[in-house]
Amino acid sequence: xxxAPGATLWREKFSPLQQKQLRDDVLERLKQAPLYRPIMPGxxxxxxxxxxxxxxxxxxxxxxxxxxxxxxxxxxxAWPDIPPVLLALWREIxxxxxxxxxxxxxxRTGAKMGLHQDLDEKDVxxxxxxxxxxxxALFRIGGNFVDGKWGRGGKTASVSLVSGDVIVFGGxxxxxxxxxxxxxPGTSRLLPGGGRLSLTLRRVAA
Length: 206
Description:
The protein is mainly beta.
């Protein structure tokens, strides 16, 4: 399902059983790399979303700015490996080389992610791949595309992401603005206590 040029949605790419298996893999890794709440560099305000990462590099946000680093900012330990099923998904869509990072965002009731661009990666040739687990979310992508560059404003497309969905955006939408307007609590029983996990695979280094 095409939602924008270069952006494709696969409905329930992961079956219910595969979702449970991936959930268990993720929860096991969260014991090593617990969720935490990043802060905005300028204001010091905490995100409404909790996050962690898997892979060689993890994305962090703090008073020093936005960046990728090899160690968890709270534990000081290396990030866990990326689940094999996600690496297989990456190869199916992007081929090689493999992703260096899987950003894990956890949305509780009321959490959201404002429209933003993924600009901290040196390699933007590979598509970003996002996997949804748990409660349904309203995803938005687009912006003002002029002279080959994305700016704020302009037309956006929105789509509901349900548990097991996979969304891919690359090519002309790799640097498009995107975000999560809201989640719909109680739409899934996959995660203990509810909420939504977003698993986003990315290449980082050029």
